[in-house]
Write a structure and sequence with these properties.
single chain, 330 residues, mainly alpha, two-stranded antiparallel ribbon, disordered N terminus
Length: 330
């Protein structure tokens, strides 16, 4: 009998099978691909804690469950205070919307102009209603993706040794030290990026406290908390809040106050944390220079969305690591 595939073509066939499997998997699972990537970054962040529990004598099963719970609790804890504060202060928001005048008159270069605010409010309510409906329709998908997130984090932690052995088994032993180096670089960079993100949000909160207090806003703690949480929204961030407050000042006729809020707010609340503190922290925590960090940060967001704030700089870090390895090779 003539064999079409001989023993020496076995490796080539296996590589082709792997590539086909990866292509099909990416296509079929494209809807949760970035959920998986996000889960992998969280698993990397939780791995030191998982290893600590293992060293304390806990089983891999228990350590994975505890670590996953801590990670999920941290994610929920970031959003929960914001939701609670907004819910408790909803009466202030509704009162503000009710008190908006139907029209607003102002003077520009001697010409009296009138702005029909009622139309803007109606359009805003319509937009918010549509957004609320879309959010409600997307709730089942969000819940499923959150469930996938939890499962993937747990599996990556629980089977971390098995996954590592599979990856190492594919490569010759001479490559193992190189793979360990890449693994350390990825772990340190991901942890550093999450530290940068959290630190920037906390610093924004503390910068906001005196800023909103001195400008005379009574719920200054509430506004500072919103500003801090908005740091997790790429590009726009606290600028959304500042522009909203400036618009509020304009609607009540305080044009000068609006200009002050807009100028100082964009400088201190939006600009200072993002343009000064974030690059400095990124340099300290990840070793990426400000220019390298911003290239990855902006490029990641534009290309793949919110997860790009982590994946973008991580890709840059891996690229730099690769150049370092090549430059040091014989």
């Amino acid at each position: 009998m003539v064999r079409i595939f001989k023993e020496d073509s076995r490796f080539v066939l296996l590589v082709l099978a792997l590539l086909v499997s990866l292509f099909v998997s990416v296509y079929v699972l494209s809807g949760i691909l970035w959920t998986f990537v996000f889960a992998a970054t969280i698993a990397y962040t939780l791995y030191p804690f998982f290893s600590y529990l293992r060293r304390k004598g806990l089983s891999a099963f228990v350590s994975s469950i505890v670590s996953t719970f801590i990670g999920m609790f941290a994610i929920v804890a970031l959003a929960f205070p914001f939701i609670i504060v907004v819910y408790r202060r909803r009466d202030v928001l509704f009162e503000f919307l009710r008190d908006i005048p139907e029209s607003f008159e102002f003077e520009v270069f001697g010409f009296e102009l009138s702005l029909d605010v009622g139309v803007i409010v109606d359009v805003s309510w319509e937009y918010l209603s549509e957004a609320a409906i879309e959010a409600a329709q997307a709730t089942p998908t969000i819940i499923l993706q959150f469930f996938v997130l939890v499962v993937v984090i747990y599996v990556l932690l629980y089977k971390s040794n098995v996954i590592a052995s599979y990856i190492l088994g594919v490569f010759d032993e001479s490559f193992h030290s190189l793979l360990y180096g890449y693994n350390k670089k990825i772990k340190d960079t991901i942890i550093g990026l999450y530290v940068v993100q959290l630190s920037t949000a906390i610093l924004t909160f503390f910068i906001g406290l005196p800023f909103f207090y001195l400008l005379g806003y009574e719920p200054f703690i509430f506004l500072s908390l919103i500003a801090g949480v908005l740091q997790f929204i790429p590009i726009l961030g606290p600028s959304i809040l500042i522009v909203g407050l400036a618009l509020f000042e304009v609607l009540i006729g305080e044009v000068v106050s609006a200009a002050i809020v807009l100028a100082l707010g964009l400088l201190l609340i939006a600009g200072l944390p993002d343009l000064v503190l974030r690059p400095y922290l990124a340099d300290v925590e990840t070793g990426l220079s400000p220019s390298q960090y911003f290239i990855g940060f902006i490029g990641g967001i534009i290309t793949i969305g919110a997860i790009g704030i982590i994946v973008g700089p991580l890709v840059i870090a891996i690229l730099i690591k690769t150049f370092e390895v090549i430059s040091k090779s014989d």
